[in-house]
Structures are given as structure tokens and as C-alpha cells.
Design a protein that fits this description.
The chain is mainly β and 343 residues long. It is built from 2 helices and 24 strands. It has a 6-stranded antiparallel β-barrel with strand order 5-15-18-17-16-19. Strands 11-10-9-7-13 form a 5-stranded mixed beta sheet. The chain has a 4-stranded antiparallel beta sheet with strand order 6-14-12-8, with no helix packed on it. β20 (294-295) and β21 form a beta hairpin. The chain starts with 7 loop residues before the first strand and ends with a strand.
């Protein structure tokens, strides 16, 4: 700290100077800054990095249908479609959304069996069409339920269901883009809509060289438009990097989705947000507020210990995070009070 008995001048908060003698006691002070105190505490120290993201909806996918003809009705962007409701109309006939994990890949009719039959029956039951057993068998009772449903939907009462009538998706969807607007002719297997789930997520296009910051299941802090902060959890990290631009403008990113539960986020789609990712965690260390550090003339740092008197204690600096800094050194102990600039 002090060589040859020469006093050391240390700048503290507010720009005031304290002079320290070789013995470590305060010799004189010119325009002494008002000081408060902080406690040396033990715990995990987390360093973070803030990246840009956008508030959107997850599970984006395209929708195909087996219907052919001219689109006579299509939903608007942002519309929500639930079980039993119309995704679009082709030649005046509705294509209905039903819930399930398997696509409609064949015509379901009397005598057919399989998990897709059960999936159809589960939806019919949920929509109020009973009189049948929900199982893997397409029976006469299933035919009757289908015909009743077809009558209500304005479809030909055939008792059989195919991909021109029903699209199976995992749940309710929100329309992101209409690929087949009214008046457009569509054919079997052509994409007609781009949809997403109805749960809010935050999406981050993370620079590929920072992908180590994103780990599935990790908790993050998300600052929403207006300054409100909510807790999120990384739900998905893409395993494929995407490149945009060329030359010096080329950018390679990895997609990261963050779930934010039922947090109130407003109705804006694609709104910009800030995401605080954990870049480093140091466990079980001693730390002080960053403003407690004092720069030493010969290099390095110290803290001003407040313990009946005031004396300078040199310390080694480690990880920074959350406005605090890890310190080690002889005499550093948990619970010790150190000086900080008074607020």
C-alpha cells in the first residue's frame, strides 16, 4: 500500500481524496466525502449480459389442408382459432380445427381403426357429440356422431372425415400470416396459413459466438416494454445456426425461445424486449458493492474498513455481477463493514 512512509492518496466516491499513512491510518482528508457503509456478504455472484429479443408467440408452423378450390373466407392476422372453429373456407366449405398430435393423413370411415380414430372421437366428444365410445374403432355410433357434426358445419353428411374437412393441430392457434387469402385457388398439400401457439414467448436471435449463454431450463430476466421486469425460463435453444447478410454484414445467430408463463405482457406482437442472460456464476464467495472499491496509487484495489475507526484493506478483485464484486485477501471476512459513498 505505502512504500517508504510516503502517504497514499485514494479517490473515493464523490471525487474526494483520503490520505493514508504507512500505518494504514487516516492522516488527513481534503473535502471528505460523506460515507455510508455496506456489509461484506457471502453468496453466489452472478454476472449477466443483456441481449435484445422480441415478444411473440411460440410454436410457429405452416398449415396445409386437403381441400382444393377457391378460398372463400380466411381469418385475419392475429385471429385466434380454437377447437371446432373454422381455419378457412374453400369453395364455401369450412376446414375445421381439431386438437391432436397426428395429422389427418387418410379418410376415416366406418370399419377403420387406430390412434387417429381415437383422436377424432376425442374431439367429437369435446365438441358435444356423444353416443359413442371413445376408442380406436370407427363404429356405427361414430358415423352417427360424424354425420351430426357435418350437418352442423354445413358439410355433406357422409359419415366419413378427410383432410379437406379437418386439420389436427396441437391446440388453439393464433394466425400470423395468411398465405391463401380470399379469391386464391389452393390445391391439396399447399400451405394456407402460418400459425403460432397462443402462449406468449420471448424470442432471441443470439449471436452464435454467445450461444454458451443460453442453456435450456435456465432462468432469465425479461424487461418488457414500459420497463416492467418478469422472470422467464429458456424453453428451447435451436441446434441449427442461421446466417443473414453477406460480407462484413454477415451475421450468424442461434434461435432461443423463453417462456414467461402467465405474465401480463399487453397485446403488442413483435414488441422489443431486453433479456438478461447469465454469463458467469461464482458460488459461495465474499462480495461488496462495486462502489466500495478504492483504486490504489501503485495499482490494485482496496476497501475502507469501518470498525470503530477507518483503515484501508487491500483486496484482490474477482467476478463482477449484479452491482457487486468478489473480493479476497488477508483480513477479509463475512459481516465486515466497509465504506461506500452515501446516497
Amino acid at each position: 500500500m505505502v512504500a517508504g512512509g510516503v502517504a497514499l492518496v485514494v479517490v473515493v466516491g464523490g471525487g474526494s481524496a483520503l490520505a493514508w499513512t504507512a500505518g494504514g491510518s487516516e492522516a488527513e482528508a481534503g473535502h471528505e466525502a460523506p460515507l455510508g457503509t455496506a456489509v461484506v456478504s457471502r453468496g453466489d455472484l452472478v454476472d449477466t449480459e443483456t441481449v435484445d429479443g422480441r415478444l411473440t408467440y411460440g410454436d410457429v408452423r405452416e398449415v396445409w389442408t386437403g381441400a382444393s378450390g377457391v378460398v372463400t373466407w380466411a381469418p385475419g392476422r392475429g385471429a385466434t382459432v380454437k377447437r371446432g372453429e373454422t381455419l378457412l373456407k374453400v369453395a364455401g366449405k369450412p376446414v375445421t380445427l381439431m386438437y391432436g398430435g397426428s395429422p389427418m393423413y387418410r379418410t376415416l370411415r366406418s370399419g377403420e381403426s387406430g390412434k387417429d380414430v381415437r383422436q377424432l372421437e376425442e374431439n367429437l366428444r369435446a365438441l358435444g357429440y356423444g353416443g359413442m365410445t371413445v376408442d380406436d374403432e370407427f363404429t356405427g355410433a361414430t358415423v352417427a356422431a360424424v354425420m351430426e357434426w357435418q350437418d352442423d358445419r354445413g358439410l355433406a353428411e357422409t359419415g366419413a372425415v378427410d383432410a379437406s374437412q379437418v386439420v389436427f393441430l396441437s391446440g388453439a392457434v393464433r394466425v400470423r400470416d395468411v398465405k391463401a387469402p380470399e379469391g386464391k385457388r389452393v390445391g391439396q398439400g399447399q400451405p394456407v396459413l402460418t400459425v403460432a401457439g397462443t402462449k406468449r414467448v420471448v424470442h432471441v436471435d443470439l449471436d452464435a459466438d454467445k450461444q454458451d449463454l443460453a442453456e435450456e431450463g435456465a432462468k432469465v430476466a425479461v424487461e418488457l416494454p414500459g420497463g416492467k421486469s418478469v422472470e422467464g425460463k429458456i424453453s428451447e435453444v435451436s441446434s441449427v445456426a442461421e446466417s443473414t447478410g453477406s460480407g462484413q454484414d454477415k451475421k450468424t445467430t442461434v434461435g432461443v425461445d423463453i417462456s414467461i408463463g402467465n405474465a401480463e405482457t399487453g397485446r403488442l406482437d413483435e414488441a422489443p424486449v431486453s433479456v438478461e442472460l447469465e454469463s458467469e456464476r461464482k458460488k459461495d464467495v465474499l462480495s461488496v458493492p462495486v462502489e466500495a472499491l478504492l483504486a490504489l496509487r501503485e495499482g490494485g484495489f482496496g476497501v475502507e474498513v469501518v470498525d470503530g475507526g477507518r483503515h484501508l484493506l487491500p483486496v484482490e478483485v474477482g467476478t463482477f455481477g449484479g452491482g457487486r464484486v468478489e473480493i479476497t485477501g488477508n483480513g477479509v471476512r463475512e459481516g465486515m463493514k466497509v465504506g461506500v459513498p452515501a446516497e
